[in-house]
């Protein structure tokens, strides 16, 4: 069945909508008087954000520390985080890269200023399923988070590799937290999503990864640090400091297993992901490069590949110029900051 057919089923979730609402010109978005409000989801692709916020808080109050603090805002889904960023409730957020491309095509003034991770997506099947190769999924039902998710592009890359198309499987859009239960209940034959929703089912013993981006798409990127252009115009130092800490958090996470263990505890806090630290730790350790954070370079070729894949998937209506949705200046001007946690 065609992935764009109106007959496509939606179980336990809904598609990501894109209403055309304007960017609110709130005073807090233009020049935050208090902490810089940043948003993210409780997924390990967003892990550098809690670490950056905690590291910044640890550095504040010391001589020479910049005034602007970071305040983390947890969201449950991409539609909510998108609307909050567009209306100015938050000034920065981790967003799906293809979604940012699409929003800028609608003249929504946003810019990607940093990566947040690499790898971290999996295709999960039941542990007792007979599937051993991706081609074995022909005719099966596979859940994805949304058509804007890079997980969907990963699924399409795997289909193309096997000489298959989206017509050879049944694609179902579903909220990632619902995917493990749907697989357990037999409502779907597999699911493709970011962590920790694959690890949660694997750790529970009823699911196993069939394909992982660490093996199939090493330069995979999904969640990117996105800011309002209004903030760039009015408070470049705050954006630069946020990028400094996000990039430093990535290097710190990949520096040692001990740091990853600390990160699991920090991210599990109610203020951040509010999750079982053992599940986050499982992602960090099984294997250790299931998600990586140390290489957060902004490479035009990688974004161009994502853009072209999104056009082929029908997610984007037309090619989007790199300069339209990316501002490299902050990554090029990174200042080293210490992550002391």
Strand order of the largest sheet: 2-1-3-11-4
Question: Would you give the CATH topology of the largest domain?
Answer: D-Maltodextrin-Binding Protein, domain 2
Q: Roughly how many Å apart are the termini?
A: 50 Å
Query: How much beta, percentage-wise?
Result: 15-25%
For the report, how would you describe the main beta sheet? 5 strands, mixed
CATH architecture of the largest domain: 3-Layer(aba) Sandwich
Q: Summarize the helix and strand pattern as letters.
A: HEHEHEHEEEEHEHEHEHEHHHHEHHH
Coarse structural class: alpha/beta
- Provide a count of the helices: 15
How many domain units?
A: 2
Instruction: Please state the CA-atom Rg, rounded to the nearest Å.
Output: 19 Å
* Nearest-integer average pLDDT: 89
Question: How many beta-strand segments?
Answer: 12
What's the CATH class of the largest domain, please? Alpha Beta
What low-confidence regions span 5 or more consecutive residues with pLDDT below 50?
A: 1-32
Q: What is the name of the CATH superfamily of the largest domain?
A: Periplasmic binding protein-like II
User: What sort of overall outline do the alpha carbons produce when their principal axes are compared?
Assistant: globular
Can you characterise this structure?
It contains 15 helices and twelve strands. The strands form three sheets. A five-stranded mixed β-sheet has the order 2-1-3-11-4, sandwiched between helices. The protein has a five-stranded mixed β-sheet with strand order 8-7-9-6-10, with helices on both faces. Strands 5-12 form a two-stranded antiparallel ribbon. It has helices at 27-30, 48-59, 78-87, 97-105, 150-161, 179-185, 197-204, 213-216, 229-234, 236-253, 257-268, 277-285, 300-313, 322-325, 329-332, and strands at residues 36-40, 70-74, 92-96, 110-115, 118-119, 121-126, 141-144, 170-173, 190-194, 207-212, 223-228, 291-292. It folds into two domains: 27-119 and 221-332, Periplasmic binding protein-like II (D-Maltodextrin-Binding Protein, domain 2, 3-Layer(aba) Sandwich), CATH 3.40.190; 121-216, 3-Layer(aba) Sandwich (D-Maltodextrin-Binding Protein, domain 2), CATH 3.40.190.10. With 341 residues, the chain is of the alpha/beta class. α2 links the parallel β1 and β2.
């Amino acid at each position: 069945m065609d992935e764009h057919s109106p007959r496509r089923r939606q179980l336990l979730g809904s598609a990501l909508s894109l209403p055309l609402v304007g960017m609110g010109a709130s005073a807090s978005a233009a020049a935050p008087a208090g902490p810089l409000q940043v948003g993210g989801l409780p997924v390990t692709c967003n892990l550098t954000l809690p670490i950056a916020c905690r590291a910044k808080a640890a550095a504040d109050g010391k001589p020479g520390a910049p005034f602007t603090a970071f305040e983390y805002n947890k969201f449950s889904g991409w539609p909510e985080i998108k609307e909050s960023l567009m209306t100015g409730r938050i000034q920065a957020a981790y967003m799906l890269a293809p979604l940012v491309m699409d929003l800028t095509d609608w003249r929504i003034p946003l810019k990607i200023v940093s990566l947040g991770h690499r790898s971290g997506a999996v295709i999960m099947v039941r542990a007792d399923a007979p599937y051993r190769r991706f081609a074995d999924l022909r005719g099966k039902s596979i859940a994805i988070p949304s058509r804007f998710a890079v997980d969907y592009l990963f699924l399409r890359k795997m289909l193309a590799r096997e000489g298959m198309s989206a017509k050879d499987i049944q694609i179902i859009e579903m909220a990632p937290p619902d995917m493990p239960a749907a697989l357990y209940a037999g409502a779907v034959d597999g699911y493709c999503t970011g962590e920790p929703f694959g690890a949660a089912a694997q750790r529970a013993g009823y699911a196993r990864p069939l394909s992982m981006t660490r093996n199939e798409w090493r330069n995979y990127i999904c969640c990117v640090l996105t800011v309002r252009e209004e903030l760039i115009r009015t408070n470049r130092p705050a954006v630069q400091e946020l990028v400094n800490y996000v990039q430093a958090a990535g290097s710190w996470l990949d520096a040692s297993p001990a740091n990853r263990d600390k990160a699991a505890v920090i991210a599990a806090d109610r203020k951040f992901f509010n999750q079982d630290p053992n599940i986050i730790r499982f992602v960090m350790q099984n294997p250790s490069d299931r998600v990586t954070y140390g290489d957060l370079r902004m490479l035009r070729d990688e974004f161009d590949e994502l853009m072209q894949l999104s056009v082929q998937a029908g997610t984007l209506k037309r090619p989007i110029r790199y300069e339209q949705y990316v501002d490299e200046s902050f990554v090029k001007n990174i200042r080293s900051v210490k992550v002391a946690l």
